[in-house]
Amino acid sequence: MTPSTDRNLPLFERAKAVIPGGVNSPVRAFKAVGGTPRFIERAQGAYMWDANGQRFIDYIGSWGPMILGHGHPAVLEAVQKAALEGFSFGAPTEREVELAEAIIDLVPSIEMVRLVSSGTEAGMSAIRLARGATGRNKIVKFEGCYHGHADALLVKAGSGLATFGNATSAGVPAEVVQHTVVLEYNNVQQLEEAFALHGADIACVMIEPIAGNMNFVRASVPFVKRCRELCTQHGALFVFDEVMNGFRVALGGAQSVYARDIPGFEPDITVMGKVIGGGMPLAAFGGKRAVMEHMAPLGSVYQAGTLSGNPVATACGLATLREIRQPGFFEALSASTRTLVDGLVAAAAAEGVPFSADCEGGMFGFFLLPTLPQNYATVMQSDGARFNRLFHGLLDRGVYIAPALYEAGFVSAAHTPQDIAETISIARDVFKSLAN
Ligand code: HOZ
Questions:
Q1: Which residues does the record list as N6-(pyridoxal phosphate)lysine (modified residue) (predicted)?
Q2: What CATH number has the domain spanning 8-71+327-435?
Q3: Is the C-beta atom of 214 inside 6 A of ligand 1?
């Protein structure tokens, strides 16, 4: 691409004149990796095309929602039909009930659910609900977990904040986060100490069970088990933030993955987003009836939204859930993701590049570290400069991964074995250049 035919750069310059940093969500600006963000014109299946007409195999999938790939015919049909019927009514619809029923059917810990428009809104409302239901103020979160950009949760968070080296946002008054207790992920001892100190004041413990905002780090089974035990023992609520994991790592979400090792395991509140909207602005939080009945208009915890349960978004989400419920869907998706991850590990090993990777369902992550990290501090030891070379090497050759070290990747049902094989072969080329 000669400078005169490149359209991404002039678009970025134009964007920067009218939008802070040229983007509507910081990580898209390529600030950490350098270079010019690609302005996407269209997408289909596993591919996206930028303003220069370059094709990319897409492993971002709109940061998670596009589990079926782009432009799935059944989803398109549902969205087109819903759009013709009306964009927004600000009144209840049958489709909202259907979507709530589908979520409850798939996630046994959820008996009632409230639909909202974004993961941030869902996380923020879940915290308010936990505080309202328990009459307590303190919330426990873990370093590197990102639960959206609500004030009380923007402390030592991952995602874009980690990328810019400032895990706590400016503009959040100390008073607002005085009740937020931040602990190390996977550190049982710290958790026990926090409960010993504040047990009677803790409204909830909130966790990304398979954290996707410090790349991909699993909460260990003993850690999740201890969180559950301590919450129950002290009357606190255990909140699973499954915005990334829900309907992505397994049909029943991360909680169904942990229930394999912890019989009967259930969180009290689940926060969902991304896949349930299928690419439209839709998110949710749900839990046991006794907890959810604290929500207005039944109870005194207030939350509302003009676009909550939007008819086009719910049509998109329902059509997406219908597809991922098909027998064998998750087996096939998990197998593709596993093939990708194993292939990348083998390619890095062949070129002598220290590399570790992990996956669950259609979500994966990798590190330029010899072993998988267990917490944020270890994630931070990753070699950022080397990651940037890897990122640009892949991007130039048509493989689009997240432009930051701290973000998980996503495989869709539209990724064919050929796409995966092509990705691994491109990665091997790039690893070769990294080894030099
Ligand atoms: N919160 C997303 C990363 N974990 C970024 C979303 C976006 O930029 O679209």
A1: 274
A2: 3.90.1150.10
A3: no
